[in-house]
Design a protein that fits this description.
The structure is a single chain. The protein is an alpha/beta fold. It has two domains: 122 residues, 3-Layer(aba) Sandwich (Rossmann fold); 44 residues, no CATH class. Strands 1, 2, 3, 4, 5 and 6 form a six-stranded mixed beta sheet that branches. A two-stranded antiparallel ribbon has the order 7-8. InterPro entries: Flavodoxin_dom (IPR026816), Flavoprotein-like_sf (IPR029039), Protoporphyrinogen_IX_DH (IPR052200).
Length: 174
């Protein structure tokens, strides 16, 4: 693959950070979602799209769903641990079946600074805490629940450049 674009959409910057690292490693063009369109995406042999996970959605995924490209990789960025999280429902909700079969997908871990969250996102996190964490007994809490509870309202950052290695190796193997 010679001509690669890395597109992304982010609210708070962790997806952008991963997109920058990936573009640097691969010598790819970096495009924020609003800079990309059907015409310029067709110029690339491979498009790698990154989107943050919010309320079961992948930010900016409509860019590559509505503007299909020949070769597509998607990476998501969220707070959950990719090693223990099942993303099947999210992927099925966001990427149509025909596209899903020919798209390689990677999941990366992001971060959150509650002080920078928008009012709707802060409300969404409060509702999530109330609906899940607060309703469980201590014995019912999973490791993810405990991590969420312990970092709620603060600042946590799990971004790690080393975690892009499988994606980079995959692309170099194409």
């Amino acid at each position: 693959m010679k001509n690669i674009a890395v597109t992304y959409k982010t609210h708070y910057g962790t997806t952008k950070q991963y997109a920058q690292w990936i573009a640097e490693e691969l010598g790819a063009t970096l495009l924020e979602q609003k800079e990309a369109n059907h015409a310029n995406l067709q110029e690339y042999d491979l498009v790698i799209h990154g989107g943050g996970l919010y309320a079961s959605g992948i930010l900016g995924i409509d860019l590559v769903v509505k503007n299909p490209v020949n070769n597509l990789i998607v990476f998501t960025v969220g707070m959950a641990n990719p090693e223990t999280t099942d993303y099947t429902e999210i992927i099925h909700k966001n990427i149509p079946e025909g596209l899903r079969e020919k798209t390689k997908i990677f999941h990366l871990r992001g971060g959150m600074d509650y002080g920078k969250l928008s009012v709707p996102h802060r409300a969404m996190m409060a509702m999530m805490k109330k609906m899940t964490i607060d309703k469980k007994s201590e014995a019912e809490l999973t490791a993810e629940d405990i991590a969420f509870r312990d970092t709620y309202g603060g600042n946590v950052n799990f971004t790690d450049k080393a975690t892009i290695a499988p994606l980079i190796l995959y692309v170099r193997g194409l």
